[in-house]
Structure formats: C-alpha cells, structure tokens
Write a structure and sequence with these properties.
Layout lengths: L17 E8 L5 H17 L4 E8 L6 E2 L5 E2 L3 E2 L8 E5 L11 H12 L4 E4 L2 H7 L7 E3 L2 H10 L4 E3 L5 E2 L3 E4 L4 H14 L1 H10 L13 H4 L4 H12 L7 H7 L4 H12 L3 H19 L4 H7 L5 H12 L3 H7 L6
Parallel strand pairs: 1-2, 1-6, 2-5, 6-7, 7-11, 8-9
Antiparallel strand pairs: 3-4, 10-11
Helix pairs in contact: 1-5, 1-6, 5-6, 9-10, 12-13
Protein name: AraC family transcriptional regulator
Keywords: DNA-binding, Transcription, Transcription regulation
GO molecular function: DNA-binding transcription factor activity; sequence-specific DNA binding
Length: 333
C-alpha cells in the first residue's frame, strides 16, 4: 500500500500498536463531536484486533463533571498525564461565550504538550483555544463557516479556511467539528492502522461519501472528476506534509500516470506541479503575515533549499519572495 505522505517525512504519528488520544473538554463542549470521535475509534478497534484505539478524558480537575452543549454532564477519566503518553492531545470546544471558563491548567497543558512535540488537535471551537494560546500562529486551520469571520478577525496570524473536514499541519490538526469529527477520526485510524481498517470503520458508521457531507470551497466543487476532487482535497488537507503523487494516485485507484493526465487536462499541470503551486500560494500568505525568513518558509513548504524555493517562486509570480514580500507592505519587526 502506497502512503499519501513520504515515510521519510513521516505522518503525524508513526503506526503503532495503540492509538491513544488525551482529550480535554471545554465547558459546554459539543456532545456530537465527542460521540463522533469515540464511536469512530470504537468501530476501528472492532475492526483491528492487533491495535487498541483509546481516548482518555483528562482535566485539571478530574473530579468535577463537565456539562455539554445539550446539558449532559461527563466526568473526566483522569488528571493530566505526561503528554508523551498520548499520540495526540485534543481539545473539543463549546460555545464561544464559554471559552474563557476553561481551566487555566488545561491551557497550560496544551502548551506543554506542544513543547513536548505531541501533536495537538483542535475540534470545533477547540481551535479557538489553541489560537488563544498562540499554538496556531502562522499555520492553516479548518474553521466552521459559522465561526470563520469571528476567527479571522480575532486571529489574523492564522490562515483560517473553511470547507475542509480537517487540516493537518503536522504538529497541529484542526477540524471544524460536527460530523467532520468522524472523518477526522477515520483519518487517524487510517494513519495508524491502514486504509482497510479506516474504510471498514467508516462503513460501520454509515458515513456518507466525504464530498456529500461538508460544503466544499467553490474552486473544489467546480472540478468535474470526483477522483480529481478527492486528490485536490487531500493536497489541501496535507499541504505542508511530504506528499507523494504515487500515494495520492493510489487513494483513488489510479496510476501516477493516469492521475497526471487528469491534472494536466484540468489544470495544465502535473500532480507534483499542482502541489508546488498550492504550497507557493501558502508561502505568499506566510511572507505577508509572518516573521519567518524566506529560507524557513521555503523549507517549511518542502523545498530542498532557499535557492530552489526562490527559483520556483519567481517562475510562479515573476519576482523573488523578498521582492513580493516588500510589495505587500511587509515591515520586519
């Protein structure tokens, strides 16, 4: 089985015998998001007997039940454990007016987990919590359309987008919540146990085809071929990860050559060229909105060195990254 991301670059977590998520619940958390996450992992565990899929509800105050958005209260399982005990540390948010009511120790725990290189997951308004702690700065984030304008105004240092069930930035994942949480959960299952287990889990949940559930960006919806739409969606969700055209092709049961033909017919580019253009678009945002150096941005976008990045940027935009940055009114602080 070919992988979407290069093994050398690594997926967000290497396949292990256990997928263990430490989960923080914020006051008035979304019960739909919690149940979707738990049910997907439960079905994954039924399909994959050699691996365990677990969620531990953790809290600064594990003896105090937390009330969900529908009034059902849930008591956490345990106090904070060392973050490295988990493959991921996730947070499910609640209504915006309740975000300030989260425990300070839970916020500190998220920052500590990030410092320990444990991938974080923001679900629903949990992404607001991550952004408030500066953990989404200079990253892309998938935000619910209902909250997008508020988020963009509050956190201009985050590249917020809508229309994606999740966005994987490597060290941080974001999900708009709702039924998209199930899609995120099945993706985590795929990363840890493979495509077959993830597909079986999705079937047991009667999960509809992804593109039929979440409204997509207009540019994506206009692509006539469903296989090409799926691959473009994957590219956008894993934009900063080391994607492989062969792995993307295998996701839609095509050869790499067949996928290249689809890309060339629709966009006039090969798969690899399309990925590069998408990354250069993200690089433009970083050049304008971040303090990162041109070299650091190029490396983050997957270019082997600064010269390689500058050459492709100049081909795409007709000027160097430095000139483009200056033209946008960028001032180094």
């Amino acid at each position: 089985m070919k992988m979407i991301v290069e093994p050398s670059g690594g997926s967000i977590a290497a396949p292990t015998t256990r997928l263990h998520i430490g989960l923080l619940l914020w006051p008035r958390f979304s019960l739909l998001a919690l149940s979707g996450l738990m049910e997907a992992l439960r079905n994954g565990a039924k399909c994959e007997k050699t691996r365990a899929f677990d969620i531990t509800l953790i809290s600064e105050h594990p003896d105090i039940p937390l009330c969900s958005n529908v009034g059902v209260s849930i008591r956490p399982d345990a106090a904070h454990a060392p973050p490295e005990h988990f493959n991921y540390v996730a947070v499910i948010g609640g209504g915006l007016k309740y975000l300030a009511q989260g425990y300070p120790g839970d916020r500190e725990y998220l920052a500590h987990a990030h410092h320990m290189n444990v991938p974080l997951i923001g679900i629903g308004t949990g992404s607001f919590v991550l952004a408030q702690e500066g953990l989404l700065n200079e990253r892309r984030a998938s935000i619910h359309p209902f909250h997008l304008e508020i988020f963009q105004h509050a956190f201009p240092q985050v590249y917020a987008e809508q229309g994606y069930d999740f966005i994987n930035e490597g060290d941080v994942l974001t999900c708009p919540g709702g039924i998209s949480t199930i899609t995120l959960a099945t993706e985590l299952i795929r990363l840890h146990a493979g495509n077959d287990t993830a597909k079986t889990a999705a079937q047991q949940l009667s999960l509809a085809p992804i593109e039929n559930v979440t409204p997509r960006p207009a540019s994506l919806a206009l692509i006539p071929d469903s296989r090409l739409r799926r691959v473009v969606l994957l590219i956008e969700q894993y934009l900063t990860r080391p994607l492989t055209p062969a792995g993307l092709a295998s996701e839609v049961a095509l050869s790499e050559r067949q996928l290249n033909r689809l890309f060339h017919a629709e966009f006039g580019k090969t798969t690899r060229e399309f990925i590069r253009s998408a990354r250069l678009r993200y690089a433009c945002w970083l050049l304008k909105n971040s303090q990162q150096s041109v070299t650091d941005i190029g490396l983050r976008m997957g270019f082997s060195d600064c010269a390689h990045f500058i050459r492709h940027f100049q081909t795409e935009y007709g000027c160097t990254p430095g000139v483009w940055r200056t033209s946008q009114g960028y001032e180094h602080m």
